[in-house]
Amino acid sequence: MPEMVARTLLAAFALVAVTSAAASAAPLDVTVTYLARSEPPVQPLSLAEPVLVDAGLVGARLALGDNQTTGAFLGHEYALVERVVPKDGDLAAAFEAALAAGERLFVSDLKKDDLLALAAKAEAAGALVFNARAEDDELRTEACFASVFHIAPSRAMQADALAQYLVWKQWTRWFLVHGSHPEDKALAAAYERAAARFGAEIVETREYEDTGGARRTDAGHVQVQQQMPVFTQDVPEHDVLVVADESEVFGDYLPYRTWEARPVAGTSGLVPTSWSRVQEQWGGTQLQRRFENFAGRPMTERDFNAWLAVRSIGEAVTRAQSAEAKVLHDYLVSDQFEIAAFKGEPLTFRRWNQQMRAPIILVTPRVLVSVSPQDPFLHQRTPLDSLGYDEPESECRLNS
To answer: Mean per-residue pLDDT for 163-185?
Structure first.
């Protein structure tokens, strides 16, 4: 606690110094562009979860107001341009239009393929793209661009966070169940890597095939109660069932319905994530309440990632006293950049692939259970680099 207080005071003194130095500086206009593709809303498996049509966007809007609060003292004026392309719309054309309008700072709420389609264009134009959604490890290990900063944690970071906790608990024998969609299989691969990395054993892997249907109406509790025990029987002795169901097809049906009485973790049960409505530590309640008052609903992981992306831009503009993309890039990858994000310690970027270092919280629907990295897992730079692909494991060599 004394260390956190000291850091808070130092940050306050630094802001006062920046404010004093900027008192006579020329005003800055800072335009942030939120870029997304319209998608049909996902129908949750439970009526307790709302159907969201604005996930991500509301987080960016809240952060813009936060930036403006600080900017008002410094002569900085922030604006948010919202460019949401239709499902089958021309994303490249929308991006080109944004560049033609002089926009150079983008928050991307896009999946991997769309992000990759824009990364080279952004680099050629001298723009920066803050990836608030795509979790694909390929973007941090192979397809790296100096124009792209990753706010969203990778699948490997989340899998490692869960693996560290399970190994700490000595639950080292895993039964892995994954969905049939590509993103489910990618997450399963991340869990396989994490198991090998931290000394766990996957005793068996099974795939749950998505046969379509109406999600809720085709899966009444009687049918599910009969199906899931059969699906999970005849498995070698294991400590925990790890589920990879990013598509949200079946994972929530597993807890309390498995053949063996075992805990469930992964995308259901105990979940590794960058944010959750249950996060209240390190001042998290303050952000939760402000978001709920602003949006009328709880803050989701996509909201938080977009909020953090816009706030990172604002922090860099405040400290660097510039809105130029090149100046901001150099500051963001420097030792001077750090940002508070209700995670218990400052967040920074890895220089070699521009992934934001951040703790991963492990949560159930109502309680924060733990935070990774776990104490036993150390690293020569920072324990945060024990999550996800480390520099020797990545082909990316940005800012070297």
So the answer is: 98
Digit-coded pLDDT (tens) for 117-138? 999 999 999 999 999 999 999 9
d(Cα 176, Cα 204) in Å, to the nearest integer?
A: 6
- Nearest 5°: the CA angle 288, 294, 296 is 85
Distance CA 394, CA 400 (A): 13
Q: For residue 202, give the nearest of 180, 171, 232 by alpha carbon.
A: 171
CA 270 vs CA 100, 134, 273, 371, 387: distances in Å: 45, 22, 10, 12, 17
Exposure string of 53-82, with b = 16+ CB inside 10 Å and e = fewer, is ebbbbbbbbbbbebbbebbeebebebebee
Task: Give me Rg for the CA atoms of the chain.
Answer: 21
- Predicted confidence at residue 219, as pLDDT, reads 53
pLDDT digit string (tens) for 67-120? 999 999 999 999 999 999 999 999 999 999 999 999 999 999 999 999 999 999
